[in-house]
Please model this.
Amino acid sequence: MYEGNYLAERLCTASMGTQNNPFLYNHQTGEKTTYRTFFSNAERMAEVLVAIGVEPGDRVAVQAPKTIAMLELYVATVLAGGVFLPLNTAYTPAEISYFLSDAKPRVFVCDAEQEEQFSPVAKEAGVAKVLTIGADESGLLAELRDAAVPGFKAVSRGPDDLAAILYTSGTTGRSKGAMLTHQALASNAETLRDTWRFNADDVLIHALPIFHTHGLFVATNITLMAGSSCIFMSNFNADDILGYMPEATVLMGVPTFYVRLLNSEGLSKASTNMRLFVSGSAPLLAETHDQWREVTGHAILERYGMTETNMNTSNPYDGDRRAGTVGLPLPGIEVLVTDPATGAPLPQGETGVLEVRGPNVFAGYWNMPEKTAEELRDNGFFITGDLGRIDKDGYVHIVGRQKDLIISGGFNIYPKEIELLIDELEGINESAVIGVPHADFGEAVVAVVVAQGGAETSAADIMTGLKDDLARFKQPKRIDFVESLPRNAMGKVQKNVLREMYAGTFR
Model:
C-alpha cells in the first residue's frame, strides 16, 4: 500500500491486515477511529489537495486546533507529495504572515473561527487557497474530504524528498524552517518504536500539541508504525490522564505533565498498568524523576531531540535510566562533543558543543543556505548549539545552550551547574540562571528562582548554600524570586525573555 511513497508506505505497514483495529480514541467525543477510516480519510484529503493544485514539493501550512482531521491532513500531504508545515496555534496574524511569506505554501489551513482574520494575511502572502478545520472536526476541508472518493494513488517520493518543514522557536533572530526528509522522519520513528518496545498492544495517552516534533513526529509516527492505539486528547488534563492510565500503557509528556500529575491523588494506583513514561522537550529535574519513581515505581525515560533532528539520544528501556542525563545515542546516530571555538572533538568527560550525525538529521534550513552552511558540516554532523558532555558510560549530559553560556571576567560559566546546586537547596522548586551585561565583567550571573509553596527562603540563604560548592566567579551577583518562569508551548524555560527582563540590571 502506498508503494513508492517512502514515508507513507512505512506509516501504514504495521496496520496492514488489521485495518479495523482502533487507531485513535477521541477524548472529546468518545468515538473510535479505525486505521481503515483514518487512511481512507487521508486519501480523500490527498485527493482534495491535488485537485486544488498541490504538486510534489508544494508546502501545505496549517495552524488549527488539535484534531483528528489535522492528523489526516498530515498524512494526506505526504500522500500527495507535499511538504507539511504545522504552525504553533499561539502565533498571531503578524507572525503567521512571516511564515507564509517565507515558506510560500500552496495551501493554508486555519481554524474555522479565525478564517476572517487570517484570509487577508494568506492572500497578501500569495497563498492560492485557504481551507478551514474547526475544533469540532468540521470546516471546509472536512466537507471537501467527505465529498471525495477514497483510493488515492500515493505520489511517488523518495527518501531524500522533503516531507515537512518545522520552524524553530526563533529565540534569536528569525525563525528558521528546518527541512525534514522522508528518510529523517521514517528512520527516527522506526528506531524509537524498536528502542522503546512499541507494539500493537500499546495504548498511548497523547496530550501533546501536534505542531511540534514531540507530539507529531514522535508520538503519532511511532503509534502508526507500531499499529498501536492512541487516546487523543486536545490538551493536558491531569484528572483525565489519571482516568485513562488503567487502560493505557504509555504516556509521552513534557516535565510539566509529570510535576502536575505528582500533585494528583491516586497516581500510584492509576499507574499500575502503565509500562512506560517518556519525558522530553525540556529538562526534567532530578527531584521530579526521583519522586515519580517513589510514587509509581516507574523510572521516567528521558530523551533528547530537537526540531532539526527529531530524537538523538534516549535513556535505555532496559538498564539504568539516569536522572539528569538524556541517555545514550540512539542506534545509527553519532554524538560528538566539540570545542566551541575550533570545532575539534574533545576528550570524554569534557564539556563542549554537541554535534549529531545520522539519518535523522535535517536537510538544511529553508531559504537559508548561509545558515545551513554554518550549522551543518560537510561531513554530515549538525552543530546543535547545545552544550554537553558524555560520561565514561556513554550517557549524554546536557549543560545548556551555547548561546546561554555566560562569560564573566573572561571565565566560562555553565548555567546548568549553578541551577542544579540551587535546585537542591531546601525550599527551592526550580531556577534559571542567565548572564546579563555588566560594565566590569562583561556579563554577570543572575539567578531567577521559584520557591516551593510556603517555603521561607532568601537570597542570603541561597548564597550560603552555594559558597562552599561554587567558585566565587560563578556565584550569582543577583538573585530574584518569581512565582513562575516564562515557558514556551513545550515547557522550555525562555531564557531569552529573562535576559530581556534583566538586561539593565547592572547599568
The mean pLDDT is 92. The CA atoms of residues 282 and 492 lie 5 Å apart. The first helix runs from residue 6 to 13. The longest strand covers residues 428-438.
